[in-house]
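tool_call: predict_structure(chain=1)
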Amino acid sequence: MAIQIGAKPDSGFDDPIGMLKDCHRRIESFLGILCVVIDRAQGRSLTDEEREAVKAAVQYFRTGGQRHTADEEESLFPRLRESAAESFEEIDRLEDDHHEANDLHGSIERLYSTWIESGTLGAEDMRRLHTETGRLKQLYSDHIQVEETVVFARASQVLDSHAIEAIGTEFLFRRK
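tool_result:
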């Protein structure tokens, strides 16, 4: 990802909630690429620039996106379930979102791969790709809003410094 002058630096492992928020910005950026390309390139072959941008976005979701999901489901969510006295319906919904997003990513990747490899995409596949990228964009928009306004706020209230440090350490090991 390009460095933007004047931009806030990414959070470190001492701020795992900040890292998750930073990752949300990358998700939005790479998802934007997938949505813009389908909107602009319908009915024609992708340009070299579009192909490379799509490949980078797909690769990000295959690696960084999967790691982000693991960070939440294996490190943050279990601790929130243990710490929060109230029911955590949001977490169940967010985990369902992760499963739906994973399925959509698989389909979107296959459709874009077909488009890149063959130079064209049939009308039905084009409609499906447009529908699925739109659904994924809405899913992430709603998902990120709940995480950042409800779940992360609650994490800041109920998790102590030891839990935050442990989460950051787990994030670090996931990246080695």
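agent: The two ends are 19 Å apart (CA to CA). Proceeding to next step.
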